């Protein structure tokens, strides 16, 4: 049961969360994490530390073994699988290391399909998809299919899909993991713009540069949070883009992303 | 403010179709191959049903055109097992029955017809020589193709009219030709068209009663009396015919209705049709298994897509629906292709035989039903598997 709690403006609220997998693997061993609206948080840690597991729990793709997970005020334990699906459709956007774009489908329709389960009619889905692609600097590539786009552009399409419905929380698992430095820079630029426009973002990374770039870092090791500046510290703007090459990129898309109008 | 429990949005029918079609669009070759089995099954069944209905329709139309009010009277056997004879006055008696509109007779003449006198007598070509009354053509509603039917003048002269088959066998297609009958020449004055209700006339050479008696030693006894009455009195006429024709020995008279044979053919569903239907059903079943197989593979291949859709907010039900829709679309494609092919095959075959092409509506309805059932059955298990997949496992697949 969810109870009214106006004193807790947290988008993400994890309390003493543990996750055990079959075979006695304890991926999380008591994690508490609070994220306020509008923060940009890096979740960093070595491989196998439990970052992805944490992201799955925040993303309501999985349930904790013990502890409380509350997303946008909803206690996950009190919601059915159907209701969790609805929660994801309305409140969450995901970006994965592999872009997960549908092959042979235009960028516009890939993004529009991100709104399929939110009850938006097709026409409105396409309009919002076009706007989201504009936001990530791909307004001129609407009709292109994934195989006609560079890796960075594909990941920006994936970001556009995740944010087309304006979810309050964007979760990104190694969004630059498959990209070279310049393409990674494009994606970080988009994240920065979204952050500036008010979206709450959690980025999983094992790249220290990217972690440093985020205003707030949550460091995970062996299933525990070992360092965290605390809720609210992620509201500041991020530092200078660690991946961006000094001279402006020739691709018009990057410039477009930088100019992307905050909403 | 109490938080509302989040409720998933409903997917509209067009969105269900779009997601179902999404999986098919990118794999056209596989779609064609797996829909093929269903297409073949449906096409076979539609064509079999269509062709047999077309043939039945053709028979029924023919019956309609020919009428069912024609009765024939023929001699049966005597009590002692000998060939009976109809009395010479039989035709006149039949004409006197109230509801009878027209009656005529033929009588078998014991002779042969040959192109020349040099052809041996034994070579008859299966052609019977018969005496015919002048109104035979009216009673049978037959048609002359060349020349003319016997009239008051020609029925007493050595003139002969040939049935369609008889003319064909003799190789005669024009009038004026001389043929050797009995011990003299006769002149062909006409050739008749086909007579579906009296095939024996098609194989006959017909001369007038007076001519037969005069030139061919015919005894004047009719061997068949043809009679038409009003449709509604056929049974009544049939009941009185034997006693009318042969008051002394009514049991020596056989009455039959030539249209019954056609009607029986129209009613019969041949064993061959049933066999072909069974084959079609087997093809359909195999097609269904093919679709199920394709769907299982599709689910295995698209675990990541399933994980992504779940992360985008798809419920288990919506994932299930997507794969069911895909399976239904796949079998519907096969079904539509099969129905079209079956319809074309029916039309082609029927038109080549001059039949009216008919596919019963229920056959199409059955095809639609079978397709839906197969699509559902084939998609059910794969769709359940897709829906059961946990989103994290699906996304972790590499
Ligand atoms: N489905 C699973 N079943 C069993 N063990 C699992 C499962 N998923 C993850 N684990 C284990 O849980 C631990 C944490 O895994 P997780 O994927 O969260 O790490 P990570 O920090 O994301 O690592 P990486 O940086 O390599 O992606 C690991 O030891 C992993 O082997
Ligand atoms: Mg990981």
UniProtKB/TrEMBL annotation, chain A:
GO terms for cellular component: membrane protein complex; plasma membrane. The keyword Oxidoreductase does not apply. It comes from the Bacteria. Pfam families: ABC_tran (PF00005). One of its GO terms (molecular function) is transmembrane transporter activity. It comes from Microbispora bryophytorum. Residues 226-236 have a biased composition (Low complexity). This is Peptide ABC transporter ATP-binding protein. Residues 226-263 are annotated as: Disordered. SUPFAM superfamilies: P-loop containing nucleoside triphosphate hydrolases. Keywords: ATP-binding, Nucleotide-binding, Transport. Residues 12-247 form the ABC transporter domain. Residues 237-249 have a biased composition (Pro residues). Transmembrane segments: none annotated.
TrEMBL record, chain B:
One of its GO terms (cellular component) is plasma membrane. Residues 279-391 form the ABC3 transporter permease C-terminal domain. It comes from the Bacteria. The lineage of its organism: Bacteria, Bacillati, Actinomycetota, Actinomycetes, Streptosporangiales. It comes from Microbispora bryophytorum. Belongs to the ABC-4 integral membrane protein family. The keyword ATP-binding does not apply. This is ABC transporter permease. Residues 32-213 form the MacB-like periplasmic core domain.
């Amino acid at each position: 049961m969810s109870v009214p709690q106006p004193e807790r403006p947290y988008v993400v609220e994890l309390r003493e969360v543990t996750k055990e997998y079959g075979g006695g693997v304890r991926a999380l061993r008591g994690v508490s994490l609070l994220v306020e609206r509008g923060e940009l948080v890096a979740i960093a840690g070595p491989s196998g530390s439990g970052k992805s597991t944490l992201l799955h729990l925040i993303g309501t793709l999985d349930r904790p073994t013990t502890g409380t997970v509350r997303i946008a005020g909803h206690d996950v334990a009190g919601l059915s699988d159907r209701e969790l699906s609805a929660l994801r459709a309305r409140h969450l956007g995901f970006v994965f290391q592999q872009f997960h774009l549908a092959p042979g489908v235009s960028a516009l329709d890939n993004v529009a399909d991100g709104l399929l389960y939110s009850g938006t009619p097709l026409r409105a889905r396409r309009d919002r998809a076009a706007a989201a692609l504009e936001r990530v600097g791909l307004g001129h590539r609407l009709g292109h299919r994934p195989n006609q786009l560079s890796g960075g552009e594909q990941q920006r399409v994936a970001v556009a899909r995740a944010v087309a419905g304006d979810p309050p929380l964007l979760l990104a698992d190694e969004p630059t993991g498959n990209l070279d430095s310049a393409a990674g820079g494009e994606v970080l630029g988009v994240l920065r713009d979204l952050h500036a426009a008010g979206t709450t973002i959690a980025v999983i990374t094992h790249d220290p540069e990217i972690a440093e770039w985020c205003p707030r870092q949550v460091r995970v090791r062996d299933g525990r949070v070992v360092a965290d500046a605390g809720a609210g510290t992620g509201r500041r703007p991020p530092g200078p883009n660690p991946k961006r090459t000094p001279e402006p990129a020739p691709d018009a898309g990057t410039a477009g992303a930088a100019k992307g109008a905050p909403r | 403010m109490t938080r509302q429990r989040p409720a998933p949005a409903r997917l509209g029918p067009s969105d269900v179709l779009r997601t179902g079609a999404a999986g098919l669009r990118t794999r056209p070759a596989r779609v064609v191959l797996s829909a093929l089995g269903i297409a073949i099954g449906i096409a076979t069944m539609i064509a079999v049903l269509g062709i047999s209905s077309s043939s039945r329709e053709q028979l029924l139309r023919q019956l309609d055109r020919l009428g069912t009010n024609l009765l024939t009277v023929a001699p049966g056997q005597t009590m002692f097992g000998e060939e009976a004879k109809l009395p010479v006055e039989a035709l006149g008696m039949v004409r006197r029955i109230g509801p009878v509109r027209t009656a005529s007779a033929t009588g078998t003449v014991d002779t042969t017809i040959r192109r020349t006198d040099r052809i041996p007598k034994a070579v008859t070509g299966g052609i019977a020589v018969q005496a015919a009354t002048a109104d035979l053509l009216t009673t049978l509603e037959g048609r002359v193709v060349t020349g003319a039917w016997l009239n008051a003048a020609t029925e007493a002269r050595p003139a002969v009219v040939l049935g369609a088959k008889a003319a064909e066998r003799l190789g005669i297609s024009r009038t004026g030709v001389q043929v050797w009958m009995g011990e003299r020449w006769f002149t062909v004055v006409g050739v008749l068209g086909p007579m579906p209700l009296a095939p024996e006339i098609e194989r006959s050479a017909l001369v007038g009663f007076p001519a037969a008696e005069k030139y061919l030693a015919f005894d004047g006894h009719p061997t068949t009396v043809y009679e038409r009455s009003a449709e509604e009195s056929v049974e009544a006429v049939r009941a009185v015919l034997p006693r009318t024709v042969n008051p002394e020995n009514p049991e020596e008279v056989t009455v039959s209705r030539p249209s019954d044979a056609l009607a029986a053919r129209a009613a019969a569903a041949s064993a061959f049709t049933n066999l072909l239907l069974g084959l079609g059903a087997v093809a359909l079943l195999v097609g269904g298994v093919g679709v199920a197989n394709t769907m299982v593979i599709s689910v295995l291949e698209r675990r990541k897509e399933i994980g992504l859709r779940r992360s985008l907010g798809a419920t288990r039900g919506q994932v299930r629906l997507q794969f069911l829709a895909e399976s239904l679309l796949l079998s519907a494609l096969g079904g539509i292709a099969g129905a079209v092919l079956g319809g074309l095959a029916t039309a082609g075959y029927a038109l080549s035989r001059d039949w009216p092409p008919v596919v019963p509506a229920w056959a199409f309805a059955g095809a639609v039903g079978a397709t839906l059932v197969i699509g559902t059955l084939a998609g059910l298990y794969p769709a359940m598997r897709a829906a059961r997949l946990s989103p994290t496992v699906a996304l972790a697949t590499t």
